[in-house]
Write a structure and sequence with these properties.
Distance between the termini: 23 Å
Largest sheet: 3 strands, mixed
Order of helices and strands: EEHEEHEHEE
Number of strands: 7
Radius of gyration: 18 Å
């Protein structure tokens, strides 16, 4: 429940007859991973840890909604989460993931555009690392958020010239 937050009106709640439990169909791809990592026993020697997740997700979009996935009820999300020892290693991980995504995109013949969502407070800290990911006059979309809405302060989204994102 703690991770549902802003999606609380857009979830499907199901009941079981046997145990009279309420279950929620997964609306996002972070829930299982974060719950799993919360109890993981790791040290700095294991870092960075990169976990790829492809998740079937369900959202009950309310009538009149004008943002997000237009009336999408079932879709699949691709995501990578990296767990790092510190901010420097985190920025290095961003760069490494971007290189991998560029190789994939080149191999399948699509163009990439980099999109960052970052809080205004964190932008001055992240700006140099974000710019380091640009090559040959590429452009980047930077969406400044007034405050932190979820558990992250910066999110790297890779968009393509194809109607579907390569990665989020």
């Amino acid at each position: 429940k703690e991770q549902i937050g802003m999606f609380s009106k857009n979830i499907y709640i199901c009941s079981t007859e046997q145990k009279h439990e309420e279950l929620v169909l997964r609306f996002n791809d972070d829930l299982g991973l974060l719950a799993m990592m919360k109890d993981a026993r790791l040290t700095y020697e294991h870092m960075p840890i990169r976990i790829y997740e492809q998740t079937p997700s369900f959202r009950y979009i309310q009538s009149g909604a004008i943002a997000g996935i237009n009336k999408g009820r079932y879709f699949s999300l691709n995501d990578v989460h990296s767990f790092c020892t510190d901010l420097q290693q985190g920025f290095q991980e961003y760069v490494e993931i971007q290189k991998i995504l560029e190789e994939i995109a080149k191999a399948i013949g699509i163009n990439l555009a980099i999109h960052f969502k970052v809080t205004q407070d964190f932008y001055p800290i992240a700006k140099k690392a974000m710019i380091s990911m640009l090559k040959n006059g590429e452009k980047m979309l930077v969406e400044l958020l007034p405050k932190q809405k979820q558990y992250w302060t910066m999110k790297h989204i890779v968009c393509t010239d194809h109607p579907q994102r390569l990665f989020h």
